[in-house]
Amino acid sequence: MNKPLPVTQPFLPPLEEFIPYLQQIWDSRWLTNGGRFHQELEAALAEYLGVKHLCLFNNGTVALVTALQCLRITGEVVTTPYSFVATAHSVLWNNLRPVFVDIDPRTFNLDPARIEPAITPATTAIMPVHCYGTPCDVDAIQRIADIYGLRVIYDAAHAFAVRRKGVSILEYGDLSVLSFHATKVFNTFEGGAIICPDAKTKQRVDYLKNFGFADEVTVVAPGINGKMNEVQSAFGLLQLRYVDEAIAHRLRIDARYREGLSGVSGIEIPQPLEDVSHNGSYFPVLVGPGYPLSRDALYDKLKTHGILARRYFYPLISDMPMYRGLPSATRENLPVAQRVAQQVLCLPIFSDLSESDQSRIIELVRGA
């Protein structure tokens, strides 16, 4: 290999196809603030994803922060320790208290059985994550939310185009938040979106992401600058032409990994759920006691061969300095998440990964 292989890297359409978009932006002098391409991308993504209302953002973290603001969440938010830090950071940024509960050992998602015991009079919301694009148990989570009068905001950063029983996973909960970061299946360099259930909610989100402006002289909320610019939007429109092809390629890579690593002692491959259309966003494996190397030793071995696997998610959010003092962050409270974080290793999966490179990765894992 001539260059290191990362866990994932952005799919880049042909440069010559992007130039006309840039020329139109240059000619129009409309660079941001809800221009033509911004409006077109919102409509195109809503149609592609099968949702009614979608608000574009400059990144997924600002979208998470705004989602909590939109629903006026207060007090405590039940969430997962097994995620990227932005999930819990968005809670802290809103001066709220995250309450961590353990994860399901099969899906690595928030375990519904652990949610109810964590609810207190201060709890107002649940923020689950569709980890690696695998849907949460949305029905069980909604039942709990309905009983206790809680709002549900899904961190759906990994779940672009994922469907469950033919329905977009983004339709569940009060809001769903997507990330369009460069490492995602669909990207706009940086970017994100909030999926809203109705036009009224979309209007409030649109106010909040633009400083709270309702018109030129009226500010209705303490909003933030979360707008996606025209260059990002144009790139998203071009990406959307190729996203089905990119997902199909990722799924072929997923299938080859499953075949090539089948039967390797100590390597556990999470199995896909039935009735779910996956997007091939990540390929995690668990390196268990039956494998001849520890997880970290395998990570180092791959790295010496130019393969940049990732221990994703390690360490747990609950082990980080700003969270580990919380009562819910104790290791005794999170045994499954602690085990998975110590064993997980995500192998490279991206549209440009060649069969020969993938074969080499498989042989290095099998040959340990």
UniProtKB/TrEMBL annotation:
Keywords: Aminotransferase, Pyridoxal phosphate, Transferase
Protein name stated in the entry: Aminotransferase
Gene3D superfamilies assigned to the protein according to its UniProt record, in alphabetical order: Type I PLP-dependent aspartate aminotransferase-like (Major domain)
Domain of life: Bacteria
UniProt-recorded Gene Ontology molecular function terms: pyridoxal phosphate binding; transaminase activity
List of catalytic residues: K184 (proton acceptor)
Residues that bear N6-(pyridoxal phosphate)lysine: K184
Organism of derivation: Rhodoferax koreensis
PANTHER family: PROTEIN RV3402C, TRANSAMINASE
GO biological process per UniProt: polysaccharide biosynthetic process
Family listed: Belongs to the DegT/DnrJ/EryC1 family.
